[in-house]
């Protein structure tokens, strides 16, 4: 069943049932080496899923739960191998969306839930996005309108030293540092395409991708110059809503939040990519924000989405 969280729509099933988890992978066409996150509604649910919760993990829970932070913790024997891709750590978070929390409470079990889209495609932020990818492949979708934050949770290992962020997300490194000290982004030691049990969802591979070719541009003022290189294509542009568009650039524009408010750009990122796909664009240009705050997360998603197949 697909359901809303504050980040994106998730595709959920009983995290303690191996056959139920297998149906998630089948519906998404997701490879078995890519782990999924387990969602809980009460702290008591965590106790069944892990063998221990350290001091830093407790501090982060107190600061950011419920909310878009996933903690990688030592899993218990109750967690099926399929959830973690055979790894010793399980990703757990408590979403803040009231519909997600109520669903988990009524289910009475922790819910394993990656994003509710076909594997490697753009994540869904509305129920319509879910149906574009998964209509006929899942049992139901619980429609609660657009998700308020629009990018996935931050995933980190609180027991590493320093703390390692495996996937930047809606909670920034600066926010984390205020609670547990400096945190560093994960850097893979080998090519990320190797399918051998990734340490976290969303790590290293081509992900979040539209059907159109995505071209990243380092600054808005360079978009017109790059657009001239694709004159024969059906061009789309994710264009910041507070910047004046060039009249001489022939393209379909999606008003992509304000450049001065990157949290709006994060919220609208996936919706914009899906809209430009739906309008038949074959190439999408996107200026990338500064590598700071939520801009780190936006750049992470865009860089993965722009990778070649």
Report on this model:
The protein starts with a strand and ends with a helix. The radius of gyration is 19 Å and the shape is globular. It has helices at 18-28, 43-49, 55-64, 81-84, 98-107, 127-134, 173-180, 223-227, 262-278, 294-305, and strands at 2-4, 9-11, 13-14, 38-39, 69-74, 89-93, 111-112, 154-157, 163-167, 183-185, 213-217, 235-239, 252-255, 283-287. The model has no long low-confidence stretch (mean pLDDT 94). Helix 9 (262-278) packs parallel to helix 10 (294-305). With 309 residues, the protein is an alpha/beta fold. It folds into two domains: 2-185, DHBP synthase (Alpha-Beta Complex); 213-305, 3-Layer(aba) Sandwich (Rossmann fold), CATH 3.40.50. Strands 3-7-4-6-5-8-9-10 form an eight-stranded mixed β-sheet. Strands 11-14-12-13 form a four-stranded parallel β-sheet. A two-stranded antiparallel sheet has the order 1-2. Helix 7 links the parallel strand 9 (163-167) and strand 10 (183-185).
SSE topology sketch:
Layout: E1 2-4, E2 9-11, E3 13-14, H1 18-28, E4 38-39, H2 43-49, H3 55-64, E5 69-74, H4 81-84, E6 89-93, H5 98-107, E7 111-112, H6 127-134, E8 154-157, E9 163-167, H7 173-180, E10 183-185, E11 213-217, H8 223-227, E12 235-239, E13 252-255, H9 262-278, E14 283-287, H10 294-305
Parallel strand pairs: 4-6, 5-8, 9-10, 11-14, 12-13, 12-14
Antiparallel strand pairs: 1-2, 3-7, 4-7, 5-6, 8-9
Helix pairs in contact: 9-10
